[in-house]
Design brief:
With 289 residues, the protein is an alpha+beta fold. The chain has two domains: 148 residues, Sandwich (Jelly Rolls), CATH 2.60.120; 106 residues, Homeodomain-like (Arc Repressor Mutant, subunit A, Orthogonal Bundle). The protein contains ten helices and ten strands. The longest helix has 19 residues.
């Protein structure tokens, strides 16, 4: 059975405006969002404090005035700093902004096809100002949706000008095929899968497959699978009453001691310690605009 736990598959309701905005306020060392992925772009703007943002193998600390950039289908995770954090979020699906113009084909479709990737962090003044403008429009019920659409095109243009890491205008058949690999892993990470089984399933040489996977996701495949499994176990420890041993098995860990070691190395607590502390966590304050 397919498992989509770490895909944020609950649809975002945009309403009349094609951008969703949130305000988040949390205390120190709080897991703001566990490792997951989605098919939209997400921009974070830090107001106060700091946020430790991990995207693939990139790991940065965002401070006041800085922005984090999360592209489509990129595995990411955020933890507040020692003094907590307050931040704003903008989220939008590039698919909604596609049209028949040449710039749309040249610059928007690569964002959908994962052949254009932006840097994880920016403090560019023009980008931050554009973020704030879009955020204000989302708050203002009288702001016209067409002006908001124009501002989204503006911020995407600024990201292209200032934050572009990789760009390929048209995906090759290889890119399209590898996109299917990523989706397969995202949907089956709790099953008994390995580098050998996946590379054979999709007809790749093992060495080439490993290099390609790291290029696309920013991390090696076994670490990618491990993170997905650990984050699913974290969610289950907090939200379910399953035994810890059962959770380990459900999440794809055949070796219980290995699960416990990996969990403590990744989170600094044993599964039992985390379950006990999670019951005392204060809920995150999120305001939908």
């Amino acid at each position: 059975m397919k498992n989509l736990t770490n895909k944020e598959f609950v649809p975002v309701i945009y309403g009349d405006k094609p951008v969703r905005a949130l305000y988040v306020d949390v205390g120190a060392d709080f897991l703001c969002f566990s490792a997951h992925w989605h098919e939209r772009i997400e921009l974070l703007r830090i107001r106060e404090g700091s946020l430790n943002l991990k995207r693939g193998e990139d790991d940065v600390v965002l401070k006041g005035g800085e922005m984090g950039i999360i592209c489509s289908e990129q595995l990411h995770k955020g933890v507040s700093g020692k003094s907590g954090t307050k931040y704003d979020v903008l989220m939008f699906d590039v698919n909604y902004f596609l049209n028949s113009t040449v710039p749309s084909f040249k610059y928007l479709e690569p964002l959908v096809n994962l052949t254009a990737i932006f840097d994880i962090k920016t403090d560019n003044e023009r980008i931050v100002e554009c973020f704030d403008k879009i955020y204000a429009m989302c708050k203002d019920k009288e702001s016209h949706p067409l002006l908001l659409i124009a501002a989204v095109y503006e911020i995407l243009g600024l990201l292209y000008e200032n934050c572009l890491l990789n760009f390929k205008e048209t995906p090759t058949p290889s890119d399209i095929k590898f996109g299917k690999v990523i989706k397969y892993v995202n949907e089956n990470f709790c099953e008994r899968i390995s580098v050998e089984s996946i590379s054979q399933m999709f007809g790749y040489n093992k060495s080439y497959f490993c290099r390609k996977f790291k290029t696309v996701t920013g991390t090696n495949i076994m670490n990618y699978i491990l993170i997905l499994r650990l984050e699913k176990s974290l969610k289950m420890l907090k939200e379910s009453e399953e035994s810890i041993a059962s959770i380990a098995e459900i999440c794809g860990f055949g070796d219980f001691p290995y699960f416990c070691r990996s969990f403590k190395k990744h989170y600094g607590k044993t599964p039992r310690e985390y379950r006990k502390s999670a019951s005392k966590e204060k809920p995150v304050k999120v305001v939908n605009l």
